[in-house]
């Protein structure tokens, strides 16, 4: 199981070495540098906890010329911190050299002053630590599995196809929550939140297209809940993103796309009927309230009938404007399906059609190129508007 709270430059290993160990100008009693002995593998500083804080630490030297820092606390929750491939190593003459992160994009240049198959000593600024690194067969705990998962991540040259889908937020203990974000093929980001209310018609609340992915050759960022996440690595199931000044890493897990997102895409991508697009003005109004008809009038220029005047402006992008005799005064969204026009304040309400997101449903009784009849019904009451297209 992959742990959550990674810091990409978690360990300042050399600071640890020189804080916790004494130094001398040479290491005459130790092994000599030997580039004929491979240093690829897992290494731990000292044989046990150096300073009594319950943690052991070390590095993994990879065959591809990179170095991973690790710290293990054996705690039940989040025992590992990795600085995955934040360092580099190379051969210089008769010894190995390493670049290990110092912070803010700077590095320590470290020399492997002596090494055998089981130990190695590092030197910095001409001083060699007397505390050796010991080779391990494997990382403590489930570190090897975690490292393999990190190895599977794509950490550069991201494409939109790497990001597309629904990514659920995870907690510090690895719990996958019922919220996160959805990225479509154009890089639009929609926020998905758990809808906790009982008897709701929906499981998730959607905030549609709240932001857009920034993706170029150098950077990929994802806006989510007011924070900008910088993509660190991704595979088919896991996404790691850095955020904040501390560059803490948040893990997201790919999940099945929620039904509410599918509904959102259905609404947003549906075609508004060509005949509906344009401006419509009411010419007749009829209302039945209970067992009697309260109004059945033609709307003309008289002051009294003008109170029933209504205007609708439908646009091809699902935008709707409504107004009365004083002019257009509301901007809304609409959706047409199965001969019904759904109207509400925002596209999010159409997506989150529930008891808590009121939507007006107007049945299309009839229509032609220049006439539209809409009916709103509730129990044994109804309202009917007859509209003419405004030329």
Looking at this protein, list some descriptive labels.
ten-stranded antiparallel beta sheet; rod-shaped; mainly beta; 29 strands; eight-stranded antiparallel β-barrel; 391 residues; single chain
Give a verbal description of the structure:
The chain is mostly beta strands and 391 residues long. It contains five helices and 29 strands. The protein has helices at 13-20, 143-151, 160-163, 259-269, 347-351; strands at residues 6-7, 23-24, 41-45, 56-61, 66-72, 80-92, 95-103, 106-115, 119-124, 127-129, 133-136, 165-170, 176-183, 188-194, 204-212, 214-215, 220-224, 227-234, 238-243, 248-255, 278-289, 292-298, 311-314, 319-324, 327-337, 340-344, 360-367, 371-378, 381-389. Strands 1, 12, 13, 14, 15, 16, 17, 18, 19 and 20 form a ten-stranded antiparallel sheet that branches. The N and C termini lie far apart (65 Å). Residues 1-27 have low confidence and may be disordered.
